[in-house]
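Q: Please design a sequence for this.
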């Protein structure tokens, strides 16, 4: 038996998993079948607890330790610590164990705190009170205690605690209206129908008297192909672990330094045995090796290699990981605290769901955005209607009566159609008034959003399964309803069957033009189609309205079709779709409506800024091309003088691959031809139904400044994002949307941002960051993203630099101590260097550094280009920092060495020992790396001064205490009075000043020369700020840079 089979059996019988069963049998109210029926086998069902946490009280330590030691750096230091415990090494195990313990503890506290917050959220849901019908009464219990088979009593505006089957409602027709905003992000109201056999049971006693079983499929994540009302747990999409470009660079640098470490250990091991090959340089007579030890060359060589690895292991900055995590965690609060990203209308601030991607906000190259609710307000306003080609403006309609005039000639075509008959007008407006699912509702809360409040008082408002319907009914302010053929995304239309007071039966249909026109047999189709196309070009959302009279025989046939489909036990959805298709035909076209979805505030300015920053903006929408293109023009994504390339399937005779390849040619474009041509930067409008030409499609789009993809399904949006991610440039992508149909692309992109719009909170919950409005994306990327990348790039390079400065003198020291593995620094210095002496200044720098004022970053988006393509973590920059660290280490070591060459170094003629030499090198080291960070700091506050100079003072005070007191818990006192003796020497003070200056001077000279000869735009602005001419001078420098760039472009 293999392990998969064993796992399956355990899941079946121990855990309660049910994937191996096709269906489940549920006994309503837990009433077992009466005696004499088939054998009763009680199925095992899982409980109703929601668990989103990772740990429990019992498994936190082992599980968290396992996850932490999966990191290469942590595992490496664990091995080093164990080696120090097992073999005789030159340093104490504390030097590796204490930093490792610090890193593991801080990380565990952070992850434990985050999981504790998840536990709190789970408990808030699991302990939510639920009303259950038991023994004819309504009792109250916690949500987590619900069992499969309980009859739940849900009141209006309450949330569903689990997957439910609707048995009955308080309405006579057995219907209820449900919002699934917490599942799919849709805040619109969807209609659900009670089971026909149980909808008459309305009281608790009647429901409790039901003896029935339910045969149904196992739980599934599909929200709409089942009679269930919620699928919370199964519909949740787990997030894949996203890694930033900075983290990938860190891992690459870590591998390089690991190779350097191994190389150092190998070189010293070889040189040690080469040194000891001379008998006169072997062990002294009092420590001479035995003959057995002399024969164990390989074992001794391996232990020496491990000892050198331990000695040099500090070149791997284990504390860098915990510093980076703290920087990301604490830095994320600056986004949430930003008052400029607070929306007063919603009362919401920006939210950070994932702090691991802060620096990725500064590396975005492609922005994929939804249209409705993201670029637009998703607030529909009725604009006009067209009846038989005759256009009416909103104020001409009052309470469903035609009272006004038509559109002015400037808004109509040259040929104005004759006024339609009063019968057609009345039918059209009756269709609008009847063909919808709008209801009047008082104040309610939908997924945390309050509706129906006006000046603090509750008022009536409309609810519907479509925001367009609400806009139409509000724009126009009696019949017996017989049937409702609900809307679905496949048919893209809805219908109602009503009976007039005269006894006539009508079928009114409303839907998208593409779903109505093919089913129309009469009416002024050409005039209405022209008006619909014109409205689409203007960016309006259109709906077509049609009707059909049903005679008694036709109505009976329709009732038979619908009844048979609704009562079908198998393929019910398919049979309903077939019935709808048979009913909605032979229609008479009445007219069309147009509603407007206004552009969000400053959406155009935001897109323009993103373009100036070098980002390419793609709009992925499900709308038709004309409507989406109009929105793109309004938002300045498209310009009026922009060359438009349309890639669609509407080509005569189809498009071959060779013809499609012609799109990337550089021949002048021929207007109005079937095969489009692209000459340099342009805008590509792409239909999702195009053929599968991925390579050519990418080649075309890379030459476009903006791309619009229309008629996109949610999965197609994710595929487009994945396609760009997988291209040869591997650009950093960002996806932003507000609805559940945007979740797929939000999860697929490197960075996902949710808009707190009107379509629920699913996009917000699944995103890495959430903002109230689209306009806040500008500051999030151009300011926060810019700062985060600059800060963490400096943090990473600085950590590697200061550890090279720290450990390379130890490597050089081995050449002067016979490769005896003698440490240069004291154990306390080895332990506290990365934890205390040099950690706080770089952490604070990575939190508050502002190399350029944020107002300048917002005014000049082109500064974003200076940090693009991970420019500050390129291999050339990494090599420069490493070489600089090696140079500083050589200056520190040999400077102190030559100064020590004089044996009368102290004022009293006393010679310095090896610990004094190491302390001098370490003192120069701490001051050098701290001053280096101070020179790189542009934004000084009292906190910077306190931390930087406070760290140096702490080092001096610690050294005085460490060497000035005989500590009883130490078995050695080698550092006693060493630091005081060194400071008592005048030449020691002079050497510290000279060596620190000599170490820092080349880097300062290099920066001065580079800024004078090859300054970047950022450095020009920094120079202007330093000169003290304020904002005017900075603006002048920026304008000069822009004019120079424009001039170079014109010459080119």
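A: Design:
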């Amino acid at each position: 038996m293999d392990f998969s089979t064993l796992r399956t059996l355990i899941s079946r019988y121990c855990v309660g998993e049910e994937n191996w069963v096709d269906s489940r049998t549920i006994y309503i109210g837990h009433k077992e079948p009466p005696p004499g029926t088939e054998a009763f086998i009680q199925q095992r069902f899982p409980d109703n607890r929601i668990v989103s946490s990772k740990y429990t009280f019992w498994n936190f330590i082992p599980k968290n330790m396992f996850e932490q030691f999966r990191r290469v750096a942590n595992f490496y230091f664990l091995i080093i610590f164990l080696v120090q415990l097992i073999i005789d090494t030159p340093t104490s195990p504390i030097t590796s164990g204490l930093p490792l313990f610090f890193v593991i503890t801080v990380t565990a506290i952070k992850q434990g705190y985050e999981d504790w917050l998840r536990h709190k959220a789970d408990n808030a849901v699991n302990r939510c009170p639920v009303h259950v019908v038991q023994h004819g009464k309504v009792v109250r219990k916690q949500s987590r205690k619900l069992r499969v088979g309980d009859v739940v009593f849900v009141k209006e505006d309450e949330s569903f605690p689990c997957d439910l089957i609707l048995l009955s409602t308080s309405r006579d027709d057995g219907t209820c209206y449900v919002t699934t905003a917490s599942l799919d992000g849709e805040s619109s109201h969807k209609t659900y129908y009670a089971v026909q056999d149980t909808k008459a049971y309305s009281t608790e006693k009647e429901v409790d008297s039901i003896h029935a079983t339910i045969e149904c499929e196992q739980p599934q994540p599909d929200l709409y192909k089942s009679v269930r009302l919620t699928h919370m747990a199964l519909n949740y999409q787990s997030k894949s672990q996203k890694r930033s470009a900075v983290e990938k660079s860190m891992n690459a640098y870590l591998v390089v330094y690991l190779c350097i470490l191994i190389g150092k250990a190998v070189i010293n091991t070889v040189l040690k045995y080469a040194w000891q090959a001379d008998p006169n340089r072997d062990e002294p007579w009092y420590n001479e090796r035995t003959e057995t030890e002399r024969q164990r060359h390989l074992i001794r060589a391996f232990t020496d290699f491990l000892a050198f690895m331990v000695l040099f292991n500090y070149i791997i900055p284990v504390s860098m990981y915990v510093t980076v995590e703290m920087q990301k965690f604490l830095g994320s609060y600056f986004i949430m605290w930003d008052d400029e990203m607070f929306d007063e209308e919603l009362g919401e601030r920006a939210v950070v769901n994932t702090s691991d991607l802060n620096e990725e906000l500064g590396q975005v190259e492609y922005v994929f955005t939804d249209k409705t609710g993201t670029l637009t307000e998703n607030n529909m306003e009725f604009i006009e209607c067209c009846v038989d080609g005759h256009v009416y403006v909103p104020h001409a309609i009052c309470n469903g009566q035609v009272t006004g005039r038509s559109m002015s000639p400037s808004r109509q075509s040259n040929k104005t159609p004759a006024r339609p008959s009063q019968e057609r007008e009345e039918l059209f407006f009756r269709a609008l008034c009847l063909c919808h699912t709008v209801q009047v509702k008082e104040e309610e809360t939908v997924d945390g959003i309050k509706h129906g409040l006006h000046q603090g008082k509750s008022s009536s408002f409309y609810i519907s399964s479509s925001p367009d319907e609400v806009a139409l009914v509000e724009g126009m302010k009696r019949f017996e309803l017989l049937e409702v053929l609900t809307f679905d995304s496949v048919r893209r239309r809805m219908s109602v069957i009503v009976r007039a007071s005269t006894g006539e039966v009508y079928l009114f249909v409303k839907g998208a033009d593409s779903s109505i026109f093919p089913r129309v047999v009469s009416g002024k189709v050409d005039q209405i189609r022209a008006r619909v196309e014109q409205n689409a070009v203007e960016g309006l959302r259109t709906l077509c309205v049609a009707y059909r009279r049903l005679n008694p025989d036709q109505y009976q046939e329709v009732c038979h079709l619908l009844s048979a489909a609704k009562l079908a036990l198998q393929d019910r959805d398919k049979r309903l779709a077939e019935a709808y298709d048979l009913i909605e035909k032979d229609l008479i076209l009445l007219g069309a409506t147009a509603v407007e979805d206004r552009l969000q505030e400053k959406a155009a300015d935001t897109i323009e800024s993103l373009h100036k920053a070098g980002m390419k903006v793609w709009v992925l929408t499900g709308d038709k091309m004309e409507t989406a293109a109009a929105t793109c023009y309004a938002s300045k994504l498209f310009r009026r003088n922009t060359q438009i390339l349309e890639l669609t399937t509407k080509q005569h005779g189809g498009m071959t691959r060779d013809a499609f390849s012609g799109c990337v040619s550089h021949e002048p474009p021929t207007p109005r031809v079937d095969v489009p041509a692209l000459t340099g930067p342009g805008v590509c409008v792409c239909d999702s139904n195009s053929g599968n030409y991925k390579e050519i499609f990418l080649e075309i789009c890379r030459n476009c400044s903006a791309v619009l993809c229309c008629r996109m399904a949610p999965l197609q949006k994710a595929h487009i994002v994945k396609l760009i991610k997988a291209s040869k440039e591997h650009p950093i992508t960002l996806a932003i949307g507000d609805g559940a149909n945007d979740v797929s692309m939000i999860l697929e992109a490197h960075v996902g941002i949710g808009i707190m719009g009107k379509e629920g909170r699913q996009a917000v919950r699944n995103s890495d960051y959430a903002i109230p409005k689209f306009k806040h994306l500008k500051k999030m990327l151009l300011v926060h993203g810019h700062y985060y990348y600059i800060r963490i790039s400096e943090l990473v390079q600085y950590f590697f630099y200061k550890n090279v400065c720290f450990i390379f003198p130890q490597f050089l020291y081995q050449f002067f101590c016979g490769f005896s593995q003698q440490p240069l620094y004291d154990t306390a210095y080895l332990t506290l260097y990365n934890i205390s002496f040099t950690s706080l200044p770089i952490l604070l720098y990575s939190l508050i550094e502002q190399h350029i004022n944020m107002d300048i970053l917002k005014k000049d988006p082109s500064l974003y280009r200076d940090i693009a393509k991970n420019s500050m973590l390129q291999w050339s920059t990494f090599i420069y920092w490493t070489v600089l660290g090696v140079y500083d280490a050589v200056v520190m070591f040999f400077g102190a060495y030559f100064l020590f060459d004089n044996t009368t170094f102290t004022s009293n003629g006393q010679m310095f020992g090896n610990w004094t030499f190491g302390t001098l090198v370490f003192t120069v080291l701490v001051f050098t790396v701290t001053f280096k960070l101070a020179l790189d700091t542009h934004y000084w506050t009292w906190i910077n001064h306190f931390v930087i100079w406070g760290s140096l003072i702490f080092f001096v005070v610690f050294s005085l205490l460490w060497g000035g007191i005989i500590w009883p818990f130490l078995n050695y006192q080698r550092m006693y009075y060493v630091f005081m003796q060194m400071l008592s020497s005048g030449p020691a003070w002079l050497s510290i000043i000279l060596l620190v200056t000599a170490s820092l001077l080349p880097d300062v000279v290099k920066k001065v020369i580079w800024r004078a000869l090859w300054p970047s735009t950022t450095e020009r602005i920094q120079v202007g700020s330093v000169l003290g001419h304020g904002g005017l001078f900075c603006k002048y420098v920026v304008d000069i840079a822009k004019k120079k760039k424009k001039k170079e472009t014109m010459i080119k």
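Q: Thanks. Anything notable?
A: Residues 776-813 form the longest helix (38 residues). The mean pLDDT is 76.
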